[in-house]
Design brief:
334 residues; Rossmann fold; Dihydrodipicolinate Reductase, domain 2; 2 domains; seven-stranded mixed β-sheet; 37% helix; 23% strand; globular; binds NADP nicotinamide-adenine-dinucleotide phosphate
Length: 334
């Protein structure tokens, strides 16, 4: 059985996902593509043997579409995911589930009312082999009790439109989900700490920033987000346990050893670092759908991550710690 996917948003990651679903994932095909840029939609659809549609709703309601992948800008996600639930179509929504916790709750309410899971959120790090080793090492007790973690999220550069708030909502949101998943706990408070700004960051941008994430069980995670680090895409983490440490380094394909030095490449960008991870994410989504199952990061995970990111934005503005207030977790997500 082939799952015929409709894709909404054919930009950076949407176009990549179309290629993966059309030619690399086993058991999927791309049936329809929509993007506000009609020429881009036509081009991406043609490359995948799909048709370009003239609205998101046309994709969602297309009887030839079994499942939907949303890769449009974040502020459109809630409305498009709600339309998928109304149409009874499973959906993989790129992060964020929605840009406000209030909108995420509307999505949660709709999914709970539908009585089953339709939504997977694109927190792909959970499918990364390196992160999975960290998770398994914590879960099997090899490093004792996990106490704290240090995380680093650095990009070489960002577009001029990138803001200090986006460092929380677009970048650190990955560390927020990773933290919740690795520790199996909710984040209860965030604090954003001002640091000396890089002279190479745009004047409007506070960069780098340090974010403290406090967990319900008392653990603390530090996240350094530095989106103009110049040298590459550097995502690492180190979890400190009561009897040991488990660290995630950049995956190394090759190393040059010369002149008394060992030189390893840093990935150029997120496509290089997580390309294989996105493929695993999509393959598991499709394999699940073929078996009639929606798994992976849930709408609850999407809601919790956005709520924490929102608190980080509030802390960025005030410099004070900000509590995260989550609603009670519905039974669908336990
Ligand atoms: P992008 O390159 O700007 O692509 C978004 C595309 O959606 C653009 O072609 C945009 O067209 C189009 N669009 C605008 N309004 C639309 C609408 N109403 N319906 C359908 N398409 C519409 O952005 P991106 O980098 O691919 O990011 C897309 C989403 O994926 C974001 O939510 C982002 O956070 C997420 N993302 C996730 C990861 C990850 O690691 N999981 C990585 C990258 C991105 P115009 O350019 O003409 O507006």
């Amino acid at each position: 059985m082939t799952i015929k996917v409709g894709v909404i948003g054919a930009g950076n990651i949407g176009a990549d996902h179309v290629t993966r679903l059309a030619s690399q994932v086993v058991g999927s095909a791309v049936a329809a593509v929509f993007d506000v840029d009609a020429a881009r939609a036509e081009q991406v659809a043609a490359g995948a043997g799909a048709v370009a549609r003239s609205s998101a709703l046309e994709v969602i309601e297309d009887p030839g579409v079994d499942a939907v992948l949303i890769a449009s800008p974040g502020e459109l996600h809630a409305e498009q995911v709600l339309a998928c639930i109304a149409a009874g179509k499973p959906v993989l929504c790129e992060k964020p589930l929605a840009t406000t916790a209030a909108d995420c709750l509307k999505v949660l309410d709709a999914e709970v009312a539908a009585g089953r899971r339709w939504i997977q959120v694109g927190f792909m790090r959970r499918y990364d082999p390196g992160y999975q080793v960290v998770k398994n090492t914590i879960d099997d007790g090899t490093v004792g009790e996990a106490l704290l973690a240090h995380m680093v999220h650095r990009n070489a550069t960002v577009p001029g439109s990138f803001t200090s708030e986006m460092a929380m909502t677009d970048s650190v949101i990955h560390e927020i989900d990773t933290t919740r998943w690795l520790f199996g706990q909710e984040i209860v408070r965030t604090t954003v700490v001002a640091t000396k700004p890089s002279p190479l960051a745009a004047a409007h941008l506070r960069d780098p920033q340090i974010v403290l994430l406090e967990l319900a069980g008392g653990g603390v995670v530090t996240v350094e987000v530095f989106v103009t680090c110049q040298y590459g895409y550097d995502v690492r983490c180190e979890v400190v346990g009561s009897t040991g440490v488990v660290a995630l380094e950049n995956p190394t394909a090759n190393a040059l050893v010369t002149g008394g030095r060992r030189i390893e490449a840093v990935p150029a960008d997120w496509r290089v670092r997580f390309g294989a991870t996105y493929l695993t994410e999509l393959q598991e989504w499709i394999t699940g759908l073929r078996a009639g199952v929606v798994g992976g990061p849930s709408a609850w995970d999407g809601y919790a991550a956005t709520a924490v990111a929102e608190s980080a934005v509030a802390s960025l503005e005030t410099g004070e710690p900000v509590a995260v207030g989550l609603v009670e977790r519905p039974g669908l997500y336990t």
